[in-house]
Amino acid sequence: MNFTVPAEWAPHQAMWLGFPSHADLWLDDLDAARAEVAALARALAGPGAEHVRLMTGSPEGEAAARAMLGDVAGVEIVPGAFGDIWLRDTGPIFGQGEAGPRAQGFGFNGWGGKYELEHDDTVASQIASAAGVPLDAHPFILEGGAVDHDGEGTVLTTGQCVLNPNRNPGWTEAEAEAALAGSLGARKVLWLGEGLTNDHTDGHVDNLARFVAPGVVACPVAWGRGDPNSRAYDDAAQRLAGMSDAAGRRLQVMRIPSPGWIEGEDGRPLPASHMNFLIANKAVIVPLYAERPGALAVQALEHLFPGRQVIGLPSTAILTGGGSFHCITQQEPA
Fold first, then answer.
1. Crossing angle of helices 59-69/30-45, nearest 10°?
2. What is the CATH number of the domain that holds 178?
């Protein structure tokens, strides 16, 4: 398939962003989550130099979004219908085809049947239609957070997620690679193993490792004693160090401090990750959970993105829903 997914650092025409719209899902965290999303929208539209397409999922959510962000330049409120805000996974993946921009849509089954909500399986078509871009629908299950792209045909993913029998039962690496080649133009797929502890996505790669430049991948290094993901981080770094991309470059691996142990209400660690950063046109927005490792992660990313302002913003309320900034966005390439 002659289709290319640009790297996230390539120019964007717009950035789609989901706005918390259902009180029954967010409960006591609703107001705080909305405040964090609003702060993200302002950062994207301001220093990030993005046209933000803020998608709401209910009339009440639309009203709240207009009250908070209706007068912010660069923020367009797009009424829609979704189960929840995780547009990276339910929305389409945009790219360039032979005849111009196209969007790729995939089956969505609530991360392996865990959270199947009304309208989530229609988000890809809603966004593609609103963007005025043709949608190619593919029958297999794939979430956008499960794959990361270098813009040159290299796709980074995890076997824990993409080969999980709760997505596409019986898939082998070869079958998955053929599907990614046919839908996303993947010329080479790089396989990592396990993702973060207690991640209901079954190991999405955008919490574990990300391309930050051609031939350069960032992944965490454990922070503090008792970091629940130290083994997964080191395994990912060791695998990456032995890999090369589709262009034949040996990968450089840059280690970024993890947030460490971020505890949930049930006493178990939450899947907090600085890897869930978002690359905007002129900024990089980093989710923060704890002060010291967060400041170090911002400094490390400033080194990796010298041409962009690196902005750290709180994401503790959004994390109660299971993800962060990258999970609730999807870039529309220029």
1. 50
2. 3.75.10.10
Residue 2 inside a domain? The answer is no
> Would the pTM count as exceeding 0.85?
yes
Please identify which of the residues 93, 327, 328, 329 carries the catalytic annotation.
327
User: Residue 334 burial (CB < 10 Å; 0-12/13-18/19+)?
Assistant: exposed
Q: How far is Cα 266 from Cα 333, in angstroms, rounded to an integer?
A: 40
How far the first Cα of the chain sits from its last, in Å, is 21
List pLDDT tens digits, range 97-121: 998 999 999 999 999 999 999 999 9
Residue with tokens 């009304």: 118
- Which residue type sits at 260? G
Taking the C-alpha atoms of residue 97 and residue 39, their distance in angstroms, rounded to an integer, is 34
Determine the average pLDDT of the residues in 49-77. Answer: 98
Each residue of 220-257: pLDDT tens digit?
A: 999 998 999 999 999 999 999 999 999 999 999 999 99
Domain hosting residue 90, numbered range: 12-333
User: Tokens 């969007």, residue?
Assistant: 103
Domain assignment present for 270? yes
Q: Does the annotation mark 327 as catalytic?
A: yes
Contact 37, 17 (CB under 8 A): yes
Q: Is residue 287 part of a domain?
A: yes
Residue 65: inside a domain: yes
Taking alpha carbons only, the member of 199, 147, 240 closest to residue 323 is: 199
Angstrom distance (rounded) from CA 100 to CA 268:
46
- 1 pLDDT band, cuts 50/70/90, is low
Amino acid at 294: G
